[in-house]
Design brief:
heterodimer, A: 185 residues, mainly alpha, two-stranded antiparallel sheet, 2 strands, B: 352 residues, 13 helices
Chain lengths: 185, 352
């Protein structure tokens, strides 16, 4: 009798579970991230005489855009293959760690002052390059949004605004959008 | 009497130098003509030249390599016993693993990521084997410590695990250059006076390669609409490097392959007899006695003879296969040919 009760209880629990699962709304698909395919510059020119908004692209930029669009699938596939493989990345990191540690031990144990001097010079060079990279990064120019900071004033004053822009390909939608970074001043 | 002897010696030395100078000139002229002609043909008709060169020279160059390796093989391994045992075991196991990959691909439906893992694992085994060989070879050298090979191999493993397919493609392009290294080591031993000229010729090869790259960078992709041409472009890495013109890739690969075939079929057989010339008699490549392993009282002439005859038979079968079904034979050849790629490593290490 107890077994029968346990069996019915299990069936009931499963039935409720199935029903409950059936009532769960389908998970919304993760929105696909837009892909940056091309980086160029753009000038926004207010024109009082213009009848229709126009998007003007130079022939050279169009050709470059076409080439970028043709290469984007391949470039992404190679990059994605490296980035989207955690197991391989972990093994690569492990190999790099072992390589550097064993290489360091070998260097210290090898009783060749000339080799050690060379290695010390190499390490010093790497340190200098690294430090200079940090310094130059610290002194890097303003972010791209800085160039757009006067857009509204320029529009009001009927002046052109020149700034950089990334061309993105959206998987859905229609037409074109211009997203301008706006910072509160 | 003494004066007469001195005059004779001077005359002999002068004669040798004049002969050597002529030989260097002939050698340089041959290398320059061959390299320029190879570069021109590889750039002009890469696919057609690839088909023709593989058909004509793939098998024979393997036979010459086999003969060369037999010549370099000692009668008794002695202190190098562990080195040669590791070398032969590695060649056997790695070749078996490489040959089994296409079969595995046919019978499984693994994802591309899983395949990348398999390829990376094979490459890691190859690197480990090479590092072990370098370490074992270094043990026989008193003054040199070759244990740097282990961190170097691990560093290469890092690159391999980041992009296994590109690492395998690098092997495809680097393998033909190994023949040039063999020639360098051989000239160093047998004709040191040619070495400077040879290095100048290597600069020419680099210039020609740069020229091919600059000339063909902007060229459109090669038509790979038929199965054979598709295979050739894939072998050169057209799928892995879509941003690079397939014309450039195939041309560079064919150029390097032609140099590789030239070294094994022409250059090395012409230089090797100079080192083993006996009783002032020029030795022929087909004579079994030219191989020390066969000539030595404790050698194995029958085995050497059988290996060379079997090699000739395989060359004939390969030509027949190419005539009947070129594409399939090419696929099979480039899969099995990994054995000769691997075999070059221990013999090159023995020359260092």
């Amino acid at each position: 009798m107890k077994r029968m009760l346990a069996f019915y209880a299990l069936c009931l629990a499963l039935a409720i579970g199935v029903n409950t699962y059936a009532d769960i709304a389908r998970p919304s698909p993760t929105p696909e991230q837009p892909k940056i395919v091309f980086h160029t510059s753009m000038t926004v020119i207010p024109d009082k005489k213009a009848y229709e908004a126009r998007l003007q692209i130079s022939q050279d930029s169009l050709n470059e855009l076409k080439a970028a669009l043709a290469n984007t699938t391949a470039d992404n596939s190679v990059r994605r293959r490296i980035a989207n493989s955690p197991a391989r990345t972990v093994i690569a990191g492990l190999c790099l760690f072992l390589s550097l540690s064993i290489g360091g031990i070998w260097l210290m144990r090898s009783a060749q002052p000339r080799g050690q001097k060379m290695a010390a010079l190499l390490l010093l060079g790497v340190a200098v390059v690294g430090a200079s990279a940090i310094i130059t990064q610290a002194n890097a120019g303003p972010p791209p949004s800085y160039q757009w900071r006067n857009l509204s004033q320029n529009l009001n004053a009927n002046k052109p605004t020149y700034a950089s822009v990334d061309i993105e390909i959206l998987p859905e939608g229609y037409g074109m959008k211009l997203v301008v970074p706006v910072k509160n001043q | 009497m003494e004066r007469t002897l001195n005059i004779d010696l001077r005359a002999a030395r002068f004669g040798y130098r004049a002969k050597s100078r002529n030989g260097v000139k002939l050698f340089a002229a041959s290398v320059i003509v061959c390299a320029c002609l190879s570069a021109a043909l590889a750039s002009w008709l890469p696919l057609q030249i690839s088909v023709v060169t593989v058909f004509l020279f793939a098998g024979p160059h393997n036979w010459f390599e086999l003969r060369y390796f037999l010549m370099r093989l000692p009668v008794r391994f002695g202190k190098s016993r562990n080195f040669f045992l590791t070398a032969f075991a590695g060649i056997g196991l790695l070749t078996a693993g490489y040959v089994s990959l296409p079969l595995l691909y046919s019978f499984t439906s693994w994802s591309s990521d899983a395949w990348s893992m398999v390829i990376a694992s094979w490459n890691t085994l190859l690197l480990s084997w090479l590092a072990l060989l370098v370490w074992l070879r270094g043990k026989n050298k008193r003054r040199r410590d070759w244990s740097w090979a282990i961190p170097a191999a691990l560093g290469l493993c890092t690159l391999n695990w980041l992009a296994p397919e590109l690492f395998s493609l690098a092997i495809v392009y680097l393998h033909p250059l190994v023949a040039l290294w063999f020639l360098d080591r051989h000239l160093r031993r047998t004709r040191p006076e040619w070495l400077h000229t040879y290095h100048q010729c290597l600069v020419l090869v680099a210039v020609l390669l740069t020229g091919i790259v600059l000339r063909l960078t902007q060229t459109p992709a090669l038509p790979d609409d038929n199965g054979l041409f598709w295979r050739i472009t894939q072998h050169s890495g057209a799928q892995l490097l879509p941003g690079v013109s397939s014309h450039l890739l195939v041309s560079v690969h064919v150029f390097l392959e032609m140099l590789h075939y030239g070294v094994w079929i022409v250059a090395l057989p012409l230089i090797v007899p100079a080192t083993i010339r006996t009783k002032q008699k020029r030795n022929r490549v087909w004579e079994v006695e030219t191989v020390p392993l066969a000539r030595h009282p404790r050698g194995v002439p029958k085995l050497v003879g059988a290996a060379l005859v079997l090699g000739l038979f395989v060359v004939a079968v390969l030509w027949l296969g190419f005539s009947v079904d070129y594409s399939t034979t090419r696929d099979i050849y480039f899969t099995v040919a990994i054995a000769h790629v691997l075999a070059e490593a221990p013999f090159l290490l023995k020359m260092l």
